[in-house]
Amino acid sequence: MTDQMEPVDDATMYRRKIDDSLARFSAAHDELEAEEKERRARKERLVARLEQTRTKLQRVVSVAGSAVGSKDGTGEAGEGEPEAEQAGPAPRTRLQEKKQRRSKRTLFAGRITAIVIAVLVFVATGVAWGAKTWFNSKFNEIAALDENSADIRNAAGQLGDENFLIVGSDTREGAELEDNVGDADGIPGARSDTVMLAHVPKDRQRAVVVSFPRDLEISRPACERWDSGTGEYGEIVEAAEQVKLNTAFTVGGPRCVTKVIQQLSGMKINHFVGIDFQGFKGMVDAVGGVPVHLDEPMRDQELGLIVAETGDVVLRGDQALNFVRARKVYGDPTFSDYGRMQRQQQFMSSLLRTTMSRNVLFDVGKLTDFVNAFAASTFGENIGVDQLLTLAQSMRGLDAGNVEFMTVPTVGEANERGNEVLLERETRDLFHALIENTPMPGEEPEQKPPGEPSESPGSEDTQQAAPA
After folding, report:
1. Where is the composition biased (Low complexity) (predicted)?
2. What CATH architecture applies to the domain 156-436?
């Protein structure tokens, strides 16, 4: 090696070039050695995975081979003969040899078939798992649930039930000027324009969707302040009396509105789905529009003409958004939030049925667009492919009469504060029926065949739930 302080002449410069070349060679050698180690490690991992797969396939083939051998009568003992007779070669006819060759071919074909099936199942499972993981990773998670709340009644009896709290937010984030709904500067924050509780019991025999008026008068508990822009929670906001339900979402976001609904219902909410109405349009367009039925054109006092056609109409984009936002629709007997809740329920069930149709599920482009739009406009907790399929499949039973839509019982007229007042006894009866999975208030209990004794001998009358 040369000393960098020695006089520089041609010989020194030559030696330094050699030193530099040796240094570069050494570095390249170290780098190549590291790469070779990584390649060997990857190869060992691949071999291990292949060995695991080969072992699984061998088990499948072994089972299939045993089954084929048993079916054809060709086991280890040969043509079904006792082992004692296998001691020496016995003369065989040409017919027996032909039969043995056919049995061997059948056994071989059975093993090949088993291998192919095992490989296809292995590949399909991997692809399905990968797609499901990709879908689930798209959803925006925001803390919302409190499944250990003291407000939950008969928690043990609700095991297996799926309760989805669905909140439609009227945030103006992302709204365009032509949407005619204002912007985030003029109307900051977010309110819960829509609050629905979808109940799917453990037996999956029915589904009930209960809507809550946004102006329902509540006693809001103390909640952590929620920033709708960042999705983060902050300081505690003191409780408030005689306020509107939609203020719970404005102040405390998903956690606060979940707490309020659990106090009112006693139900264990295990899924929260928040939907931004401005992004909601993308979901509708992704599935090619949502069909609704109208007996007359739809015109709103504030939004103007929304739908000019009648009959079965497919709504898209802004038209669909205005359909679920309109509150003062001419021809609507309620001319209020109650009519809007009915239209929202109608639209939600139609959207779910459309999404679950063959036209969407078997169209990769539409399904991917819907998932992307859903992820862009939705937030919540414990929502993913499995949970949403449970909700959507339950909503598909609407035509068969297995889905019931209703509004939480109220007085029906606003009080001096402009709030809707809850009918407490009727509300208690409603949610008791849902929690206990008994007939709804006003429903006839299941009639038993003539001559079959009732569950309570000696009782001639059957108690019915109070009407809502």
Report:
1. 61-70
2. 3-Layer(aba) Sandwich (3.40)
